[in-house]
User: What shape does this take?
Amino acid sequence: MAVIKLSRKGWNNLIIFAMLIMIFLFNGLHHKLGGVDEPVGPQPILPEQSYILALEYPGVRIERIGTSWRIQAEQLQSVEQAQLENIIAAWQNTQVDLGAKTSASPMLVATLSLAGEAQPWVYVLYPDGQQYQLFDRQQQRWLLLSKQQAQQLFIQLEG
Assistant: This one.
Protein backbone atom coordinates (compact mmCIF):
# COMPACT_ATOMS: atom_id res chain seq x y z
CA MET A 1 0.00 0.00 0.00
CA ALA A 2 1.45 3.32 -1.07
CA VAL A 3 1.51 6.17 1.39
CA ILE A 4 0.86 9.60 -0.05
CA LYS A 5 3.22 12.20 1.24
CA LEU A 6 2.04 15.76 0.81
CA SER A 7 3.63 18.95 1.90
CA ARG A 8 1.81 21.36 4.18
CA LYS A 9 0.81 23.41 1.12
CA GLY A 10 -0.48 20.27 -0.59
CA TRP A 11 -2.64 19.31 2.42
CA ASN A 12 -4.05 22.86 2.57
CA ASN A 13 -5.00 22.70 -1.10
CA LEU A 14 -6.59 19.27 -0.61
CA ILE A 15 -8.69 20.55 2.30
CA ILE A 16 -9.77 23.63 0.33
CA PHE A 17 -10.89 21.53 -2.65
CA ALA A 18 -12.67 19.03 -0.38
CA MET A 19 -14.58 21.90 1.29
CA LEU A 20 -15.55 23.38 -2.08
CA ILE A 21 -16.87 20.02 -3.26
CA MET A 22 -18.89 19.65 -0.05
CA ILE A 23 -20.37 23.15 -0.48
CA PHE A 24 -21.42 22.39 -4.06
CA LEU A 25 -22.91 19.05 -3.03
CA PHE A 26 -24.89 20.52 -0.13
CA ASN A 27 -26.11 23.42 -2.26
CA GLY A 28 -27.34 21.05 -4.99
CA LEU A 29 -28.77 18.63 -2.44
CA HIS A 30 -30.76 21.45 -0.84
CA HIS A 31 -32.50 22.18 -4.16
CA LYS A 32 -33.29 18.49 -4.78
CA LEU A 33 -34.61 17.78 -1.27
CA GLY A 34 -36.56 21.04 -0.97
CA GLY A 35 -38.39 20.47 -4.21
CA VAL A 36 -39.73 23.24 -6.39
CA ASP A 37 -40.54 26.45 -4.57
CA GLU A 38 -43.48 27.07 -6.92
CA PRO A 39 -46.48 28.10 -4.82
CA VAL A 40 -49.64 26.02 -5.05
CA GLY A 41 -53.20 27.31 -4.73
CA PRO A 42 -54.53 30.85 -4.64
CA GLN A 43 -51.88 33.57 -4.40
CA PRO A 44 -52.21 37.23 -3.42
CA ILE A 45 -51.69 39.64 -6.32
CA LEU A 46 -49.49 41.95 -4.24
CA PRO A 47 -46.94 40.94 -1.62
CA GLU A 48 -48.39 40.62 1.86
CA GLN A 49 -48.23 43.75 4.01
CA SER A 50 -47.81 45.95 0.92
CA TYR A 51 -49.00 49.54 1.23
CA ILE A 52 -50.38 51.13 -1.92
CA LEU A 53 -49.46 54.79 -2.41
CA ALA A 54 -50.85 55.25 -5.93
CA LEU A 55 -52.67 53.26 -8.59
CA GLU A 56 -52.63 54.29 -12.25
CA TYR A 57 -54.61 53.14 -15.25
CA PRO A 58 -54.46 54.78 -18.68
CA GLY A 59 -55.95 58.25 -18.12
CA VAL A 60 -56.72 57.59 -14.43
CA ARG A 61 -54.64 58.13 -11.29
CA ILE A 62 -55.78 57.19 -7.79
CA GLU A 63 -53.47 58.40 -5.04
CA ARG A 64 -53.40 58.32 -1.28
CA ILE A 65 -53.91 61.70 0.37
CA GLY A 66 -53.51 61.21 4.12
CA THR A 67 -56.03 58.52 5.04
CA SER A 68 -58.30 59.00 2.01
CA TRP A 69 -58.01 58.59 -1.75
CA ARG A 70 -58.18 61.08 -4.60
CA ILE A 71 -58.88 60.31 -8.25
CA GLN A 72 -57.58 62.28 -11.20
CA ALA A 73 -59.35 61.34 -14.43
CA GLU A 74 -61.13 63.00 -17.30
CA GLN A 75 -64.02 60.54 -17.67
CA LEU A 76 -64.44 59.26 -14.06
CA GLN A 77 -65.05 62.34 -11.91
CA SER A 78 -68.17 60.89 -10.22
CA VAL A 79 -66.35 58.02 -8.45
CA GLU A 80 -67.06 58.07 -4.71
CA GLN A 81 -64.57 57.58 -1.88
CA ALA A 82 -66.07 54.19 -0.99
CA GLN A 83 -65.56 52.97 -4.57
CA LEU A 84 -61.90 54.03 -4.49
CA GLU A 85 -61.39 52.21 -1.18
CA ASN A 86 -63.01 49.08 -2.68
CA ILE A 87 -60.65 49.16 -5.67
CA ILE A 88 -57.59 49.48 -3.42
CA ALA A 89 -58.89 46.74 -1.11
CA ALA A 90 -59.42 44.47 -4.12
CA TRP A 91 -55.78 44.90 -5.16
CA GLN A 92 -54.58 44.15 -1.64
CA ASN A 93 -56.90 41.23 -0.83
CA THR A 94 -57.71 39.36 -4.05
CA GLN A 95 -56.40 35.80 -4.17
CA VAL A 96 -55.87 34.28 -7.64
CA ASP A 97 -54.55 31.07 -9.14
CA LEU A 98 -51.47 30.95 -11.31
CA GLY A 99 -52.35 31.31 -14.98
CA ALA A 100 -50.66 30.63 -18.27
CA LYS A 101 -49.17 32.83 -20.95
CA THR A 102 -51.67 33.95 -23.56
CA SER A 103 -51.22 35.12 -27.13
CA ALA A 104 -54.05 37.69 -26.87
CA SER A 105 -53.39 41.41 -27.15
CA PRO A 106 -53.21 43.36 -23.88
CA MET A 107 -56.36 45.22 -22.82
CA LEU A 108 -55.35 47.39 -19.87
CA VAL A 109 -52.33 48.21 -17.75
CA ALA A 110 -52.29 49.01 -14.04
CA THR A 111 -49.25 50.54 -12.34
CA LEU A 112 -49.04 50.46 -8.56
CA SER A 113 -46.62 52.48 -6.47
CA LEU A 114 -45.94 50.60 -3.24
CA ALA A 115 -44.34 52.01 -0.11
CA GLY A 116 -40.70 50.98 0.18
CA GLU A 117 -40.41 49.99 -3.49
CA ALA A 118 -38.15 51.98 -5.81
CA GLN A 119 -39.91 50.87 -9.00
CA PRO A 120 -43.67 50.67 -9.55
CA TRP A 121 -45.32 47.27 -10.00
CA VAL A 122 -46.87 46.86 -13.45
CA TYR A 123 -49.76 44.51 -14.23
CA VAL A 124 -51.04 43.89 -17.76
CA LEU A 125 -54.55 42.49 -18.31
CA TYR A 126 -55.22 40.10 -21.23
CA PRO A 127 -58.59 38.64 -22.29
CA ASP A 128 -58.74 34.84 -22.26
CA GLY A 129 -62.20 33.62 -23.29
CA GLN A 130 -64.58 34.07 -20.35
CA GLN A 131 -61.65 34.82 -18.01
CA TYR A 132 -58.63 37.08 -17.96
CA GLN A 133 -54.89 36.59 -17.58
CA LEU A 134 -52.97 39.14 -15.52
CA PHE A 135 -49.22 39.40 -16.16
CA ASP A 136 -47.19 40.54 -13.16
CA ARG A 137 -44.08 42.16 -14.69
CA GLN A 138 -42.30 42.52 -11.34
CA GLN A 139 -42.40 38.80 -10.51
CA GLN A 140 -42.69 37.57 -14.13
CA ARG A 141 -45.76 35.44 -13.42
CA TRP A 142 -49.19 34.94 -15.02
CA LEU A 143 -52.30 35.06 -12.85
CA LEU A 144 -55.78 33.81 -13.74
CA LEU A 145 -58.65 36.22 -13.04
CA SER A 146 -62.39 35.68 -13.22
CA LYS A 147 -64.49 38.31 -14.96
CA GLN A 148 -65.71 39.57 -11.56
CA GLN A 149 -62.16 39.87 -10.20
CA ALA A 150 -61.04 41.76 -13.29
CA GLN A 151 -63.96 44.20 -12.92
CA GLN A 152 -63.02 44.81 -9.27
CA LEU A 153 -59.39 45.54 -10.15
CA PHE A 154 -59.89 47.53 -13.35
CA ILE A 155 -62.58 50.22 -13.09
CA GLN A 156 -62.60 50.68 -16.88
CA LEU A 157 -64.17 47.20 -17.26
CA GLU A 158 -67.32 48.12 -15.31
CA GLY A 159 -70.55 48.27 -17.18
